[in-house]
Amino acid sequence: MDLAATPSRSKSKPRSSPAKPVAAPAESRMDLCTPSKPTPRRKSKSTASPAPMSPATPSTVRRSRRLLETPTKAAPEVQVKATPTPTSRGKRAAPSPKTPAQREPKRQKRHPRKRAYYRKVVYDGGEFEVGDDVYVKRREAAESDAEDPEEECRVCFRTGGGVMVECDACLGGFHLRCVRPPLRRVPEGDWACPYCEAKRAGKVAERPRPPEGKRIMRTAREKLLSSDLWAARIESLWREPDGTFWAKVRWYIIPEETAAGRQPHNLRRELYRTNDLGDIEMETILRHCSVMSPKDFRDANDGDDVFYCEYEYDIHWHNFKRLADIDDELETKEDPNDEPYNAGDDYNSDTDEDSEYDEEEKPTSSFSARRNQSHELAANSRKGRIYGLQKIGIRKIPEHVRCHQKTELEKAKATLLLATLPKSLPCRDKEMEEISIFVKDAICNDQCLGRCLYIHGVPGTGKTMSVLAVMRRLRSEFDSGTLRPYCFIEINGLKLASPENIYKVVYEQLSGHRVGWKKALHYLTEHFSGGTKIGKQANQPIILLIDELDLLLTRNQSVLYNILDWPTKPNSNLVVIGIANTMDLPEKLLPRISSRMGIQRLCFGPYNYRQLQEIITSRLKGIDAIEEQAIEFASRKVAAMSGDARRALEICRRAAEFADYRVKHSAQSTVSANKGDSVVCMGDIEAAIQEVFQAPHIQVMKNCPKFGKVILVALVHELYKSGLGEIMFDKLATTVFSWCHANRELVPGYDTLVKICCKLGESKIILCEEGSKHKLQKLQLNYPSDDVTFALKESPDLPWLSKYL
Question: What's the whole-model pTM score?
Fold first, then answer.
C-alpha cells in the first residue's frame, strides 16, 4: 500500500511586458517540463521526496508559447516568411531585414486566425491530453489551491520516515510504527485506524493534535472531497486566436452535491461523472488525478489522487446510470489534413515590424464580441468570480453535511439503516462463539477432512451477519500475527445466474482468471484432489461461505454434491459453511449428499421482543431520539408476527423520518415547537407500522377474490415446506384442490386458477415464469411471507386459512 508522493506543480511566472520579441534560442521556445503523471491508487504511502521539475520556461517567452503536439485540427495557413525548423540546439539564423515595400503585400493578405484543436498540450510544466482527469480551481485568486504538500502522518505530523498506511474510514495516513499496536507490514484488504475502530465501538478516543504553531496542509484529495476543488475530464483542447488555451471538460461531483446526498453505500473516494460540460481556461487546471472504474480501482496498488467512479449523474433529472451501460462517448474526429503544430514557428517567425503590425491590427471588435458571447456561460466566468462547475442543476451542500453536525433524528435515521454496519451484534454471542471455534479448528487442522457447517433459521435472525462478524474478528487476529493465513470466499446464491456459475466464482477468487463453468469445475476438482494447485494461496486453508444454499439445488443435485464432496478429499484444506432458511434441507437431499453435509448444524431462532428491543437500543446507543416505550411497542409488534430484526429496524427508521419531517415543518412555521416533538413517540411508531404492514400490496391481498387468498396462502405454505424460492403451478393447484376439498369449499377449475394467478401477476404480487405450458410454469412470491400472514391471517370469509399460516 505504497502511496507515492505526487510532485507539486511549480507556480507559473508572471507574464512579461509585450515588448518587441527578440529571436530566442531554440531551447527557449520549447517547454520540456516533466509532465505530472497520475498517481496510482492509495494503500501504502511512500514518503520519497517529490520528483525534481525541469527548468521552467524563460521569462522572455510568453506563457502562451507552449510546445503542442499532435493537433486534431490545424490552424489555417498564414502567409508569413518561411523559417527552417532548427534541428540542433544552436541559435536560429537571424531573419533577413524587410523593407516597407515588402511588408505591404503581406499586410493586405493577412486574415484573422481561427481556433486550432489539439490532442495533447504541454502547458505550464504539465502534459495534458484528451481523456485525462485533472484537478480544477474552484474559485479565483485562491493561492492555496496551487499548493500540493505531501500527506502528513496523523500521529507524528511528519512527512518522512517510512511507509504509511491509509485508513479506509477517515482516509488519514499513519506510519506503521506510529499505530498502536505497531504494524509489522501493510494489512491486506480494508483497514481502519484505532481511532475509527474506537468510534465504531462507541468509545471516546481523542485524536492527536498538531504541535502548537504548526499548520496542517491539506492535500488536493482532501480539498476535492471537501468541495474546495473540482475534478474534471478533458474532452477537447484548443487555442484561441488571441493565444490563450482552453479546454472543454466533463465535470465530476462528490455524492454530497447530488440531490440524494451521500448514502451509506458510497465510498469515501467515490465520484459521479455528470452530463454537464464546460469551457475553462488552461490556467485553472492544476494537475492530473485518476478517476478509475471499479475493476481498475480494485487492482490499483497505491496513490493518493485515485478516485472511484461507477455511475453517471444527470444534473437535470437527478438520476443515475451505470457507466458500463452507457455507450462509448464520441471521440473527437481527426482531420486528415492536420499538421503538427509548432509554437515557435507561429510566434517567433515574425520580425519586429510584424510584431508592430500585430499590435496595431488586433482582431476586430465583432470577433471579440463573438468570443465573449461564446464564453459568457463558461464555467470559470470572470464575471461571477467562480472557477469550475456551473451551479445550474447542482444542489448546494447543506451546512449540516459539510460541518458534520447532524440532529439526533438524522443520526437515528442513518444508524437504523439496514446497510449500516452495527458497532456490535447483540443476542448472538453463543452462536458466534460456536462459529469461531469451528473455523479456528478447521484452520489449525492441516487435514480438516469433511468440514461442513450448516446454519439455518428464519429470515432476519442475523445468520449471515454473525458469520461475517466472526470472519472480521479472525482477520484482525491474522493481522496481529496470532492466526495462520487463510483464504475467505463469500458467495450469495441470489447473485448467481445459474447454480453452475458457482464454479466460475470460486475459480476466479482463487486464480484471478475467468473461464467457463465446465473448465472451472475441472480445475477445482484437480486442485482439491491434490493435483495442479490454483493461485498463489494454494496451500492455505479455504473458508467457503455459501449464503442461500438451497438455491444451488438442481434436478440431479450435482452442484451440491461436488461442493460438499471437495472437503472430504485428503489435503483439500476446504471448509464449507452453508446458510439457508430451511431447517430440514439435509433431509430433503439425496443420501450421498446429506451424508457429506455432516451432523454439525447451528439453528438461529427468531428474536423475542426483549432481544429486538436490545438490538434497537444498541444501535441507538448515545442517541436520544426514540422513546423507550415506542421501542418496546415496535419490538412486541414485530415479535408477534415473525421476529425479523430487519422489520423492526425498518419500522423505527420510518418513524424517525416521520418525526424529523414534523420537526422541520414546525420549525418553518411561526409557532414554536415543543421540546418533546423532537423525539419519536408512540404515534410515529403506529404510523410506521400502518405504512409497513398496510402498504398498497397488503390492501391488494386483503381485497383479492376468495380463491386468490387460498392461492397466496398455499404458495407461502409450499415455499416454506420445500425451502425453495419458487414452485410449479401444477403442485400449487394440487394443494389448493386438497384444501378446498378438506374444508368443504367449492373446488375451482384449472382455468379459474390460471386467471387468478394472471391477475396476481399483473399486480406484481407473484412473479410468473414466461411460457405457454401453465402446469409447468414456476411461480414466486414477490413480497415477504410476513405480509401474506399479516393480510390473511384473520380473513373473515376464510377463517380456516389461519391454521396453514
Answer: 0.50
